[in-house]
Amino acid sequence: MRIEKQTDSALNKHGVLLIWLDPHMHWYGRANGKPGRTLTFSDVAVQFCLAIKGLFDLPLRQAMDLTEKLLYRMGLNWAVPDFSTVSRRRKQLREVVGYGISRKGWHLLVDDYGIQIMSVGEWKIRPEIRNDRRQWLKLEVAIELR
Predict the structure, then answer these.
(1) Interval 103-115: pLDDT, tens
(2) DSSP string of 6-44?
(3) pTM (2 decimals)?
(4) 74-118 residue pLDDT tens
(5) How far apart are the first and last CA of the chain?
(6) Are strands 114-119 and 106-111 parallel, antiparallel or unpaired?
(7) Sign of the C-alpha dihedral, residues 30, 31, 33, 39?
């Protein structure tokens, strides 16, 4: 009985982040018709790295490592943008602000349209996202709350 109470209290100290990735999104850059070299990574790929940085309150280099590990856990063999690419392009992109993970949790949706962060309650009231015919890859991450 005592062990169960300790386990329950330990679980209550964790928040949950559900990461939803569209495996068919354009992770790598595409030609945009403008002169110059095509970007190696899409804006969404760079924003995803910035979202991980913001949500976990990490320095940029550690966020790149965590992003690589998350993609690996999801079974995606995608390269991760390097530090200098993200650092340079973050000036032109909106950065996802770390909201702090609540006990109920958050959903991080990543697809070609960009990145959305929703609370659990918001996820339930927006059926156009949940019932989409896309096949999402989902990863659940437990986060220790302070």
Answers:
(1) 567 778 887 877 8
(2) HHHHHHHTEEEEEEEE-TTS--B----SSSSPPPSB-HH
(3) 0.75
(4) 999 999 999 999 998 888 887 665 555 555 677 788 878 778 777
(5) 26
(6) antiparallel
(7) positive
